[in-house]
Amino acid sequence: MGPIKTMLSQDPAVSSKRVVTFLAFLLCAAAFIAMVLGHPIDQKLFDSMMYIVVAGLGFTASEKFAPTKEIK
C-alpha cells in the first residue's frame, strides 16, 4: 500500500483528484482490454471516463506550475 500512496500524493496526504483519476484510468484500461477481446462497450461511457482521466491529469499537472499562496 505504501508505493500506491507515494504515487498518488506528493504530500503525505492522499489527493482525492489523483485517486479519482487513477481509478478512472483503471476502468478505461479494463474497458479497452474488454473491447480488444470482443466485448461490446458503450462508446459514450468509455469517452466520458476518458475525459475524466484527461481532466484529472490536467488539473494535477497544473498544481505543480501554479503559485501557492500561504495564508498568514
Write structural notes for this entry.
This protein is mainly alpha-helical and 72 residues long. The protein has a domain at 15-64. Helix content is 71%, strand content 0%. The protein has helices at residues 2-8, 16-36, 43-65. Helix 2 (16-36) packs antiparallel against helix 3. It is elongated and about 55 Å long. The mean pLDDT is 82.
Low-confidence stretches: none
Percent strand equals: under 5%
Number of beta strands: 0
Overall pLDDT score: 82
Category by helix and strand content? mainly alpha
CA-CA gap between termini: 35 Å
Q: Report the helical percentage.
A: over 70%
Gyration radius (Cα, Å) is 16 Å
Number of helices: 3
Helix and strand succession?
HHH
**Looking at the chains present, what oligomeric state does this protein adopt?**
single chain
Most strands sheet: none
